[in-house]
Amino acid sequence: MSNKSEKSDMEKGPSQTVVLTSSASIASRDENAKWGSTSAAHRRLESYHVNLIAMGGSIGTATFVYIGSGLTAGGPLGLLLGYGWWTAVIYTIAMAQMEIVTFWPTDTGFSRNASRYIDEAWGFGIGWNFWVNEIAVTAYEVTAFTIVLEYWAAATNVNPGVYIAVVLASYFVINIWDTRFFGHAEFGFSMSKILLSIGLLFFTFIAMVGGNPLGDKFGFRYWKDPGVFANPYPAHGKLTSQFEGFLAATTNAAFTIVGPEYLTMIAGETKNPRVVLPKAFHKTLYRLIVFFIGGALCVGVLVPYNSPELLGAIASGAKGAAKSPYVIAMNRLKIKSLPSLINACIAMSIYSAGNAYYYCSSRSLAQMARDGHAPKIFGKRNRHGVPYIAVLATAFFTLISFCQVASSAQIALTWLTSIVTANGLVSWITFSYTHIRWTKAMKVQGVPRSSLPVTSWLMPWGAYFSLGASIFVILLQGYTVFLKGNWSTDAFLYSYLSPMVIAAISLAWKVLKKTTWHRPADVDLVSYIDDPAFDVQPEDENQSAVHRWLNRIF
Known about the structure:
Blueprint: E1 9-12, E2 18-21, H1 29-34, H2 47-56, H3 61-103, H4 109-117, H5 120-149, H6 160-176, H7 179-208, H8 221-224, H9 238-256, H10 260-265, H11 273-302, H12 308-316, H13 325-332, H14 338-370, H15 388-397, H16 403-406, H17 409-444, H18 461-476, H19 489-513, H20 545-553
Antiparallel strand pairs: 1-2
């Protein structure tokens, strides 16, 4: 089960302690199939696929464009603090997921774990929450992709519906094939996004020390004038307004900074998950620091929070990278060649992020079907282990991307952004609380943490921190509607409708199915966790030299 021990399987002894043994499977293949063992989902993703997806899989529109909204709301220091705080939250969640996913590396682990360690009704609700979230965020990225293309004037002569059709068709082709094809595609995309992010860090440093056509050594000028904090609501008083700006920047970060859920999603299709996944989860720290905290620092250095160009681009819904702080800085510094190149790179990043979300949507629907939480037909897989019916369903529901053809793309983006932010926060709450309940069950049943395949020094107390932080943000993300004269029904629904709907469907399932809230002493910590495919497998003799080399490097 781990590198620390040659033992691999779990069983309860008389003292209720779960010990590691080398016995055969304790559950039949039929029982394992019920929970989605490797008999259904084929483990085709290599170590290099998983590690690069961990580093760059979720980098998309928000990282390069939407982050500008956080800057205008919070100022450079408010943005940096908001992103820094939320990075700590997400990394803590990643460590919680690392422990619980390596314990039971099944696909769609978070909804299954919620069903197993909390209540099946909770797993039902979070499963549908995640599926809706992935459909919405796929549509968001597709919408953003078409807007990015309109940065080039020639592209505006083409109906955006054409771009949408091409993108969705390509997503379908990538995801209907063998999972390895998806892995290869995301490996290349992720590598490109990593290089783009690092390139922008270097650009920021070179530009701020005077390496630009104007020879302007601006350094941290904009931290002094107009200052480190924005003042979005001056009528509320300076300190209150600055704190509100920080909250807005944090909400921006909650939409932008994601990732651990995607490693959880691919756990069921990863080779040697108990060896590969811990390394991938740990690598999320580098991604969080370099790409998100580093990105927040860069945009705060490059552009003042009161930049007329940035504020105007956001207000007018400027096309593509025109509202990216990086492109605005390049235009100010008279750098003529880079903006178009950056726009092309951003388009590639957006396309890749949408592809990853498309994958997650199809897999989550397939697993809900096999858990009895969705029609069974969506759980069918072909001989390559691909849930082809679920992929077809995803292709159908992502057609909501065409909404922008009939209405303003900016309105569609606002709607989708709000749904994704709220649903994402519900997921973080679930991840954290599931870990707390799982840890409690282990303690009550006498299972030592030392028996786990891998542990983090942040756990178990880190889960309480991420739970509290997520609840805090989900409650306050739409607080401005409650201020005097600020009521907006649309804004209220954007912020709070999704959590209420999720709670309602979970409660309805609980009443309908008469599910029970699991007591720690009754939680099953034994079944379905001893599959030999979870541990180290011999290297495939037919594997090419290139694949072996990539696995060693990444």
